[in-house]
Structure formats: structure tokens, C-alpha cells
């Protein structure tokens, strides 16, 4: 889900509806990656513009458009034991605190399908459900280490860059952001 949101939609014809809106979500999650316990904060703040095609004029629709805005995660971790960073193993004292920033594209095209009966009923109320996926470039990943005895060491920094590449490679699955929305609509 892109989070809690609000949208406006306008019926162009029996077959086409345009929508625009915004979504917000903040999620905290703890996760262990490569022997480091991370506290992760996922933050999304997006706007979107879409066109829905209702073949036959019914409730079923195909949707296309794009999300614009931020989808990023902040990771803060401190290893509790010897940890491999890149190709070498370091102690917690040598590593210190690892901070990671993961950011997806600012523009993310979207494709989906759903059901919306807002404009097919005589009631002012309608129901909508939508499922699809938004597409991002490969996420940007930046790792930094502070407070460790090797924080400024060139060898450690080279291994940290190698670890960054590994995390970036593992994060490539986040190029595809699944979207599921359920909502009530009110027609003015």
C-alpha cells in the first residue's frame, strides 16, 4: 500500500475517469542484515496522476499513470559481534554505527486493475479496490559508518563501498512496489 491517502476523480466519459491524489506512510521495522541489527524507518510521501479505462462502462477498470515523490528508508544499525563488511570481517568496535539510506526513483510509473462503482450507481457513495505495481529505477543506496575505530580507514571504507554494492544488488527487488488500495468514494 502507498499508505493513507485521498484522491479526487473526474468522469470524462462512460469509459474514462481521471484521478489524482496523495498518499503518506511511515513504518518502523527492525531487521537483521549481514549480521547487523538495523532499525529501519520507511517513509513515503507521494502524489499521483492516473487515467482509468472502464471497458464497457462498468465497474471494472484498467489504470495507468505515475506516482511522484519520495519513497525512502533510513537504516541505523550497530553490530553486536564480528561482522563481515564487504569481503572482510570487523569487530563492532572497528565498525561503530552503520547508517544506510535507500531511495527509490522520484517518478514511478504505475499499471493496475480494479473495480470502482462510483459512477455506475445512483448512490453518492461508491466502493473502489485497486491492485497493481509501480516501477522504480534501481534504488540508490548509501552506507556510512561512524564512531568506529576504523571509520576513516581507507581499507575499511573500500569494504564499506563493496557492502553498499551488495545491499544495492539485494535491493533491486524494490524496483517493483506493489500497490493495493481499498477505498470509499463520495460523489459530489
Report on this model:
The protein has 188 residues and is mostly beta strands. The protein contains two helices and eleven strands, in the order ββββββαββββαβ. It has helices at 92-95, 154-170, and strands at residues 4-11, 16-33, 36-53, 60-77, 83-85, 88-90, 96-103, 107-116, 125-135, 140-147, 176-186. Strands 1, 2, 3, 4, 7, 8, 9, 10 and 11 form a nine-stranded antiparallel beta sheet that branches. It has a two-stranded antiparallel ribbon with strand order 5-6. A hairpin with a 2-residue loop joins strand 5 and strand 6. The longest helix is centred in the last third of the chain and has 17 residues, at 154-170. It is elongated, with a radius of gyration of 22 Å. It starts with a strand and ends with a strand. The mean pLDDT is 90.
